[in-house]
Design brief:
It comes from Pectinatus haikarae. The chain has about 130 residues and is an alpha+beta fold. The chain has helices spanning about 70-85, 100-125; strands spanning about 1-10, 15-20, 25-35, 40-50, 55-65, 90-95. Strands 1-2-3-6-4-5 form a 6-stranded mixed sheet, covered by helices on one side.
Length: about 130
């Protein structure tokens, strides 16, 4: 199994991405902040797009732990990577900052997007 770990940000804004490739499929864990945890898990399955243009899409199922808000984050990343890599993708996400403020959310979103772009760049030529 191939494993890739990436990190972006410092202090309470750090976010880690651990990826394990199981054959063609991918498992991603995204955690960070003051209290890394599991807040939501999304499993995406690739399919041909319903547009009929030959492009790829994906369907996703999400489980969110009560009181957590990482469901949309896990969902969007799983959908994007499953369609892009045309494989099953599981994303676990859990990021918590104590006494979070709006600026913290903006920084975390930027750091998470950078992580996703970095993993895409790292495996670009390997997934086909």
């Amino acid at each position: 199994m191939k494993k890739i770990s990436l990190k972006v940000g410092e202090g309470k804004h750090h976010v880690c991405l651990h990826t394990v490739f199981c054959g063609k499929d991918a498992i991603l864990s995204i955690a960070g902040g003051d209290v890394p945890h599991i807040g939501a898990v999304a499993v995406a399955v690739p399919r041909k797009s319903l547009t009929g243009d030959g492009s790829h899409s994906a369907s996703v199922s999400v489980i969110c732990i009560a009181g957590h808000k990482e469901d949309e984050l896990a969902r969007s990343i799983a959908l994007r990577l499953s369609a892009l890599w045309f494989c099953n993708v599981t994303v676990s996400a859990g990021i918590h900052i104590n006494d979070v403020e709006k600026e913290d959310i903006v920084i975390l979103r930027k750091n998470i997007e950078e992580l996703v772009e970095n993993i895409i760049d790292k495996v670009k030529d390997e997934m086909h």
